[in-house]
Amino acid sequence: MIKKLIVFICLSTLAIVTIHAQFLFRISGGELKEPSFMLGTIHNLPGTLLDSVAEYKIAESQCQQMYVEIGPKGFNNLWTNNLSSQKKGKQTIRYPEGKTIFDVIDKESTVILKEKFREVLPIDLGDEKWKDFQKMPPGYFLNLLASRLPSQMMKKQGGMDMYLMQKAKERGWNIGQLDDENIKLEDLAEHQDRLPQTIEEQADSLMAFLKSYDERKQKMTKEYETTYHYWRTGNIDGFISLILPQISNHTKVYKDRNEKWLSKMIAAMREKPTMFVFGSGHLIGECGIIHLLRAVGYEVEQIIIQ
Fold this sequence. Notes:
The protein has helices spanning 2-13, 54-61, 72-92, 107-120, 138-153, 160-170, 199-211, 213-232, 236-248, 252-271, 289-295, and strands at 23-29, 36-41, 65-68, 174-177, 274-279, 298-303. The chain is an alpha/beta fold.
């Protein structure tokens, strides 16, 4: 469970500091009089990198609106739903009276947990003012640290999707959302449904994660250097070979959402030329957007950045 969790998060959030190309595609044919475009992103990649990419600017100049995975309203709903889920989890998985996270993990794990929280948040879990926080279930601590592991691997972060949304807003563009506005966190991360359901099981998973944290970080850094080299150079075939198994194992995250997106994309393109911006993982495979668009008669061509 831990490995799948980290792999999924890293595929979604790792940042790169240089760029030569990206997954930019032109959509044409069918009933379209003018082409639309789609950009596969790495969500935390700095959006400013696109300011110097002439091909993206040309594509952008031909569009009149933007559609993204989750827009501002969707993010607000997602955050609200996430807080509600956390509160529900806290109510259903409880420590014995008077106990906290430090009573269910060993001393070595306690030291590591406090150290990592100071590094990534920063929060001093030993401080009395965080006593209520200490009552969160072990699975919460695991998810929180795992979600921040990518930023520990790469020093620089960005926000390409948010940056492009802001630019679109400044142009006065309509910003549409491909996902339903009431999308929930479990729709974005299938692994969350698989968390152990008892305090003891979650504590064991957390301790295993903490004691191998640095080793995982080092190994993942090497593995994903290759993945992001493919993205950076626009090598779609290499990218597919590396992450397709993960796509196949996350039908809710990719296949189900992609199929729902298709009708919205077609409607948007028929209305006016559109720039679609979403994570690169949604492009590939038989359930990917490229295949789905081609299957209904559109031409999809990758634009290679020089």
